[in-house]
C-alpha cells in the first residue's frame, strides 16, 4: 500500500501512528486504550480493524519493488557501451555495408538477450529470498481470540503474548506475569528485559531500552505471558524508525544553496542544474555508480572508444579521406577491433555464475554489484555473539570457596553427559589456562556439602528446563544463561528443572532487575518444611547482600572474578540463606506483597560460576585465513572488555602474546565504546592502530569505526544480525547479514546474507570475490591484448596499398566480429568459469583504487598484444610477398577478383593464425605466471585433466580451433562474406606463427617469474603457513623491537 511508503519525518519515538497526548510509555495502559478507542477485553470490531488497516496501511516496513522485466531490458539497451556499438552499427548501415552491419547487429542482439536473461534471473533470485511463511499474531477482535497475519494488525488491536512469540508491533502492556522480552535485535542488550505494566514514565525521552511497560516489534518473548494494546505499526515502530534512518548511507546528494532568507540565486540554480546533469550523465555512462571495478571498466570503455575514434581518423587520413566504402569499412574495422565488444556480455555472465556458486556456498547475494568488490575487502568488522561465537552458553568453571574449582570441557552446550569435568582445590586466580585443570572426576559421585549448597542455587534459582527426549537427545528451553547453569547442575545429578518437584516447592520469585542485577527464589524443602532463599546475580550486587564479607575476602572474590573474566567467561555470583526466613503465604506471593529487600540480605556467599559463549569451531581457522589473505579482523561487541579481549585472543583477532606488543599500541587494541566515542575524528586518525576490539558497542560506535577505516583508505565489510547492526551494514562497503538469526531489517541493509550464519562462509564470499576478480582480469586481458594486436596490425597495415593508393586490410571487419563472437565471447566466458587458484587466499586484497589494471596486467597487455601483432603481420607479409610478389590486386577490400587471390589467401592465413592464437591464448591465461606446458611432459595425464577441469573453456577452444575450416572452404561464405579464400601451402605459415606465439608467450612468463622471484614477490611453496608464522606476519608491526617475534623476523 502507498501508506506504508509515507514519510514519517517528525514522528516522535514512542508515539502512535496518529500521535497520542503523550508517548505510550508516558501514559497508563488505561489511558492508551481510551485514546486508541478500543476495549481492553473485547478489542476492536472486525469492521473497525478493516477501516483502520485502510487508513494506516499494512504493518510492514514497506515492500521492496518487484521484478520489472521491462526496466531490466531497457537497462540492457540504454547504456553507454551498447550505444557505442549501435553507433558502429549505424555507420555500417549508412554506407550500405549490409554484411558487416548484420554481423554486428547479431552480436549486439545476443549481448542484450543474454544480459537480459541473466539480470532477470538474478532479480528473481533476490525476490524469491523472502520468507514463504507470513508472520502471525493472536489478536482479540469482537471479544474472540483469533490468529491473523501480523501485517494486518492496526493501532488499537489487543494482542496476546506468550513465550516464544515474536512481537508483531509496538504495544503498551496491559497486564503480564513474569513477562520478559529479548530486545537484543533492537537495543543490543543480551539480557532479556523484564516488563512492568504499571510503570509510567514522566520523561518522554526515555530510551527504548528503558521503557519497561512497552514491547517492541520483532523482539521475542522469552518468559511469561501478557496482553498488550498495539499503538504503532509499520514504519512508526522503533524498528521502522531505524529502517527509515537507513536511507542515510553516507552518499552525498546535491542540495541547492540557499541564502539566509531561504532563496536560491540564479547562479546557484544554474550550478545546481549543471551538477545534476553531470550526475545523471555519469550514471548513464557508468562512471559514477556501481562498485569500483564496474566504474573502472566503464571508464576504460570510454577511453578505448576515444582511442577507437582516433584510430578511425588515422585510417581515413592515411587514405586522404576518400569517401570510398572500403576506406570507411577499414576505419570501422579498426575502431571495432579496438573496442572490447564482449565486455558487457562476459561480465554479466561471470557475475551471474558467481552468484549461483555463492548460493551453493551458503552465501546469498542481494546486490550483485558488491560481489566482485569482496575481493578488495581489507577489513572485516564483525559482531561477536552468534557470528564468531555459537550464541549457546555453557558453564566452563565453578569456584566454590573452601572447596575448589570445577572445570568443564565440552562441545555440546545442552548435553549434560558430554565432555569431562575436573576438580582442583585451587582458586581460579592461581590456576592454569588449560580447559581441564585438575583431576578428572565423575560429577554424580561428588557429594561435598559446599557443592550441594552451590548446586541448589544453580538448579533452583533457575527457570530453564533441560530434559532428555525419546530419541536420547537433549533439549533445553529458557534463557541461555540459565540453561548453562541448569545443564551444569544436571551433570551432578540434579533433575534438570527448578523447584515444584518432589524435593522442593517454589513459593515466590524475585525476578532479575536491571537496576538490582539479582534474581532470587524462595523455596520450601518438602521434607523439612524449611524455607530457603537462593540468589544469583552480578558479583558486586550479590556480595553487598552477603554476611561475613571482609575487605580481604571481597578482594579475593573479585580477584577470582577477574581471573574468570580474563578467560572470556561471564561471571555470576551464587548465594543462599537456609535459616531465619519466615514462612510465606500463597496470597503474599501471588499479589506481589513480598519485598525482596526483606529476604535478599544476610546471605551466605556460595561461589562464582563462569559461563562461556563458545566460539564457533571454524572461527579461529577462518580468522587466520583472513590474516593469511591480508584482511584485518575487528570485533565490535556489546560484551565486557575483558570478556571480549579473551574471546578475541581465542579466535586469533588479538595476538596470543599480548605482552610482546609495543606499549603505545597495546593500550589501544582493546577499547570500551565510551572511550572510543570520546575521541574526535582527528584523534582517531592519529592513533597508530585502530582498535581490534571495541566493547560495549552502540550502533553509532560501529558506524564511527567504519568511517575511521574509510579515512585510512580501507575497504570494509561489516557483519551483523540485529536491527542495531543495520546502519553500520549500510555504511560498510560490503554489508554481510546473518540469514538464520538475523533481523529482516539487517538483511535488507546488507549486500550479502550468510544462509548458515557461519563466519567461515565470509571466507567463501571473499574467495569467490577474488575468483571473480581474477577471472575478470583474465577475460579482460584476453580481449584487450587481442585488441592491441588487431589495432597494431591494422595501423601498420596502412602502409600496404593497392594501385589506387587504398590501404588493404589484413583482417576484415567480419573476421574480427566472427572471432569476437565465436572465439572471443565463448572462450572469455569460459575464463569467467575458471575455478579459484588454490593460493587465492595467500595474497593481499587487490587494490580497489587500481582495480584490474595492476602493473602486471598492463605489462601483460602490451607484451601479449605486441607478440600477437608480430605473428599476424608476419603471416600476412610472408604470404603476400613470399608467395604472390606483393600483388595487392584491385578493390580487394570490397570483392573478390582474380587479381585478389594473393590478398585473399594472405588474409586467410592471417585470420586462421589469429583465430588459433586467440583461442589458445585463453589457456595461456588460466595461470598468469605458470607455464601452460607445466607438467605436460612429466605428468601428461594430470596436465590433460587440468585442461578438462573447465569443460566450457575446453570446448570453446576446440570450437574456435575447428570453426575456421567452414569459414575458409564453404563457397560464398568465404569470398563474399569474409573476403578471404581457402588455403593450402599457407598452412605451414599458420602452424609456424602459432608456434611463434607460444614461444613468445612462454618466454614472457619465464621473464616474469625471474623478475618476481628476484624481488621476493613470489613466495616459496608452503613457507610460513602455520598459525605461528601467520601471527608473526600479521602482528609484527605491533611488536616491540626487542621482542622474540620481532627479532626472529629480523634474523630472517
Automatic annotation (TrEMBL):
| EC annotation from Swiss-Prot or TrEMBL | 7.2.2.3
Name used for this protein in its record: P-type Na(+) transporter
One of the entry's Gene Ontology molecular-function terms is:
ATP binding
State the reactions this protein catalyses. Answer: K(+)(in) + ATP + H2O = K(+)(out) + ADP + phosphate + H(+); Na(+)(in) + ATP + H2O = Na(+)(out) + ADP + phosphate + H(+)
| Localization terms from the record | Cell membrane
Q: Which family does it belong to?
A: Belongs to the cation transport ATPase (P-type) (TC 3.A.3) family. Type IID subfamily.
Task: Name a single GO cellular component.
Answer: plasma membrane
- Which cofactors does the annotated protein need, by name? Mg(2+)
Q: Which UniProt keywords apply?
A: ATP-binding, Cell membrane, Ion transport, Magnesium, Membrane, Metal-binding, Nucleotide-binding, Potassium, Potassium transport, Sodium, Sodium transport, Translocase, Transmembrane, Transmembrane helix, Transport
Cation-transporting P-type ATPase N-terminal domain span: 23-97
Q: Which InterPro entries match?
A: ATPase_P-typ_cation-transptr_C, ATPase_P-typ_cation-transptr_N, ATPase_P-typ_cyto_dom_N, ATPase_P-typ_P_site, ATPase_P-typ_TM_dom_sf, ATPase_P-typ_transduc_dom_A_sf, ATPase_P-type_domA, HAD-like_sf
GO BP term (any one) = potassium ion transport
Listed transmembrane segments = 72-91, 97-117, 300-321, 327-352, 779-800, 816-836, 857-884, 913-932, 952-972, 987-1004
Amino acid at each position: 500500500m502507498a501508506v506504508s511508503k509515507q514519510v514519517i519525518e517528525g514522528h516522535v519515538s514512542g508515539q502512535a501512528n496518529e500521535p497520542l497526548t503523550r508517548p505510550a510509555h508516558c501514559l497508563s495502559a488505561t489511558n492508551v486504550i481510551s485514546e486508541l478507542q478500543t476495549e481492553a477485553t473485547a478489542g476492536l470490531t472486525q469492521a473497525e480493524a478493516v477501516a483502520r488497516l485502510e487508513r494506516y496501511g499494512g504493518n510492514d516496513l514497506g515492500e521492496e519493488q518487484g521484478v520489472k522485466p521491462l526496466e531490466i531490458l531497457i537497462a540492457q539497451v540504454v547504456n553507454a557501451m551498447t550505444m557505442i556499438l549501435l553507433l558502429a552499427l549505424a555507420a555500417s548501415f549508412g554506407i550500405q555495408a549490409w554484411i558487416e552491419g548484420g554481423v554486428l547487429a547479431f552480436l549486439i542482439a545476443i549481448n542484450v538477450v543474454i544480459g537480459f536473461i541473466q539480470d532477470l534471473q538474478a532479480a528473481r533470485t533476490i525476490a524469491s529470498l523472502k520468507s514463504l511463511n507470513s508472520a502471525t499474531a493472536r489478536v482479540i477482535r469482537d471479544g474472540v481470540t483469533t490468529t491473523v497475519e501480523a501485517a494486518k494488525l492496526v493501532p488499537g488491536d489487543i494482542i496476546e503474548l506468550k513465550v516464544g512469540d515474536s512481537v508483531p508491533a509496538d504495544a503498551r502492556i496491559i497486564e503480564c506475569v513474569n513477562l520478559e522480552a529479548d530486545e537484543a535485535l533492537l537495543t543490543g542488550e543480551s539480557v532479556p528485559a523484564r516488563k512492568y505494566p504499571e510503570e509510567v514514565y514522566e520523561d518522554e525521552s526515555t530510551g527504548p531500552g528503558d521503557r519497561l511497560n512497552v514491547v517492541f516489534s520483532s523482539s521475542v518473548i522469552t518468559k511469561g505471558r501478557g496482553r498488550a494494546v498495539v499503538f504503532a505499526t509499520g514504519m512508526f515502530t522503533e524498528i521502522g524508525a531505524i529502517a527509515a534512518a537507513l536511507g542515510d548511507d553516507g552518499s552525498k546528494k546535491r542540495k541547492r544553496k540557499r541564502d539566509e532568507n531561504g532563496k536560491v540565486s540564479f547562479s546557484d540554480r544554474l550550478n545546481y542544474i549543471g551538477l545534476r546533469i553531470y550526475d545523471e550523465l555519469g550514471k548513464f555512462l557508468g562512471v559514477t555508480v556501481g562498485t569500483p571495478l564496474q566504474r573502472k571498466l566503464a571508464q576504460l570503455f570510454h577511453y578505448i572508444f576515444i582511442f577507437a575514434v582516433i584510430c578511425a581518423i588515422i585510417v581515413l587520413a592515411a587514405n586522404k579521406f576518400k569517401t570510398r566504402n572500403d576506406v570507411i569499412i577499414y576505419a570501422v574495422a579498426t575502431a571495432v577491433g579496438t573496442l572490447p565488444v564482449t565486455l558487457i556480455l562476459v561480465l554479466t555472465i561471470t557475475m551471474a555464475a558467481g552468484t549461483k556458486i555463492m548460493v551453493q556456498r551458503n552465501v546469498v547475494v542481494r546486490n550483485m554489484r558488491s560481489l566482485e568488490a569482496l575481493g578488495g575487502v581489507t577489513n572485516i568488522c564483525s559482531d561477536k555473539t552468534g557470528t564468531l561465537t555459537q550464541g549457546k552458553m555453557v558453564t566452563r568453571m565453578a569456584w566454590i570457596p573452601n572447596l575448589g574449582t570445577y572445570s568443564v570441557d565440552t562441545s555440546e552446550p545442552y548435553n549434560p553427559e558430554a565432555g569431562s569435568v575436573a576438580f582442583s582445590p585451587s582458586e581460579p586466580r592461581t590456576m592454569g589456562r588449560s580447559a581441564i585443570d585438575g583431576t578428572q572426576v565423575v560429577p554424580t559421585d561428588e557429594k561435598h556439602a559446599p557443592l550441594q549448597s552451590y548446586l541448589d542455587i544453580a538448579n533452583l534459582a533457575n527457570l530453564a528446563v533441560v530434559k532428555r527426549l525419546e530419541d536420547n537427545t537433549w533439549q533445553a528451553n529458557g534463557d541461555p544463561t540459565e540453561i548453562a547453569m541448569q545443564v551444569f547442575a544436571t551433570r551432578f545429578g540434579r533433575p534438570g528443572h527448578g523447584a515444584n518437584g518432589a524435593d522442593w516447592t517454589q513459593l515466590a520469585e524475585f525476578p532479575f532487575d536491571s537496576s538490582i542485577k539479582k534474581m532470587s527464589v524462595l523455596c520450601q524443602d518438602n521434607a523439612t518444611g524449611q524455607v530457603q532463599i537462593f540468589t544469583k546475580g552480578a558479583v558486586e550486587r550479590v556480595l553487598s547482600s552477603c554476611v561475613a564479607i571482609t575487605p580481604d575476602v571481597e578482594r579475593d572474590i573479585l580477584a577470582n572474578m577477574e581471573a574468570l573474566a580474563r578467560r572470556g567467561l561471564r561471571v555470576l555470583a551464587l548465594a543462599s540463606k537456609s535459616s531465619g526466613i519466615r514462612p510465606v503465604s500463597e496470597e503474599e506471593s501471588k499479589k506481589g506483597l513480598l519485598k525482596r529487600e526483606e529476604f535478599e540480605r544476610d546471605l551466605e556467599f556460595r561461589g562464582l560460576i563462569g559461563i562461556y559463549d563458545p566460539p564457533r569451531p571454524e572461527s579461529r581457522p577462518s580468522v587466520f585465513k583472513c590474516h593469511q589473505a591480508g584482511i584485518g579482523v575487528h570485533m565490535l561487541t556489546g560484551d565486557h572488555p575483558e570478556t571480549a579481549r579473551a574471546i578475541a585472543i581465542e579466535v586469533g583477532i588479538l595476538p596470543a602474546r599480548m605482552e610482546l606488543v609495543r606499549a603505545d599500541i597495546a593500550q589501544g587494541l582493546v577499547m570500551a565504546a565510551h572511550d572510543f566515542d570520546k575521541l574526535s575524528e582527528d584523534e582517531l586518525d592519529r592513533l597508530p592502530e585502530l582498535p581490534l576490539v571495541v566493547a560495549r558497542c552502540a550502533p553509532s560506535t560501529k558506524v564511527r569505526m567504519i568511517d575511521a577505516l574509510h579515512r585510512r583508505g580501507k575497504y570494509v565489510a561489516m557483519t551483523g544480525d540485529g536491527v542495531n547492526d543495520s546502519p553500520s551494514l549500510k555504511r560498510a562497503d560490503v554489508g554481510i547479514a546473518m540469514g538464520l538469526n538475523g533481523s529482516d531489517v539487517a538483511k535488507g541493509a546488507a549486500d550479502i546474507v550468510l544462509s548458515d550464519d557461519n563466519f567461515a562462509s565470509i571466507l567463501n564470499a571473499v574467495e569467490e570475490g577474488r575468483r571473480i576478480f581474477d577471472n575478470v582480469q583474465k577475460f579482460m586481458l584476453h580481449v584487450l591484448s587481442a585488441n592491441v594486436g588487431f589495432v597494431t596490425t591494422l595501423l601498420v597495415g596502412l602502409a600496404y596499398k593497392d594501385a589506387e593508393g587504398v590501404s588493404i586490410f589484413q583482417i576484415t571487419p567480419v573476421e574480427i566480429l566472427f572471432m569476437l563472437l565465436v572465439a572471443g565471447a565463448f572462450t572469455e566466458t569460459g575464463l569467467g568459469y575458471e575455478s579459484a587458484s588454490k593460493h587465492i587466499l595467500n595474497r593481499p586484497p587487490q587494490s580497489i583504487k587500481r582495480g584490474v589494471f595492476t602493473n602486471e596486467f598492463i605489462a601483460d597487455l602490451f607484451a601479449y598484444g605486441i607478440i600477437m601483432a608480430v605473428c599476424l603481420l608476419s603471416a600476412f607479409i610472408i604470404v603476400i610477398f613470399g608467395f604472390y610478389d606483393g600483388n595487392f590486386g584491385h578493390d580487394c577490400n570490397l570483392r573478390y577478383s582474380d587479381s585478389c587471390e594473393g590478398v585473399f589467401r594472405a588474409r586467410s592465413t592471417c585470420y586462421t593464425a589469429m583465430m588459433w592464437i586467440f583461442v589458445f591464448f585463453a589457456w595461456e591465461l588460466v595461470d598468469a605466471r605458470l607455464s601452460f606446458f607445466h607438467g605436460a611432459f612429466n605428468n601428461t595425464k594430470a596436465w590433460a585433466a587440468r585442461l578438462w577441469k573447465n569443460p566450457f573453456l575446453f570446448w570453446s577452444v576446440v570450437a574456435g580451433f575447428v570453426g575456421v575450416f567452414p569459414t575458409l572452404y564453404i563457397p560464398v561464405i568465404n569470398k563474399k562474406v569474409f573476403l578471404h579464400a581457402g588455403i593450402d601451402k599457407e598452412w605451414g605459415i599458420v602452424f609456424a606463427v602459432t608456434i611463434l606465439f607460444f614461444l613468445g608467450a612462454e618466454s614472457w612468463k619465464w621473464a616474469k617469474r625471474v623478475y618476481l622471484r628476484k624481488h621476493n614477490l613470489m613466495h616459496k611453496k608452503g613457507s610460513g603457513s602455520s598459525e605461528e608464522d601467520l601471527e608473526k606476519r600479521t602482528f609484527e608491526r605491533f611488536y616491540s623491537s626487542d621482542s622474540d617475534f620481532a627479532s626472529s623476523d629480523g634474523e630472517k
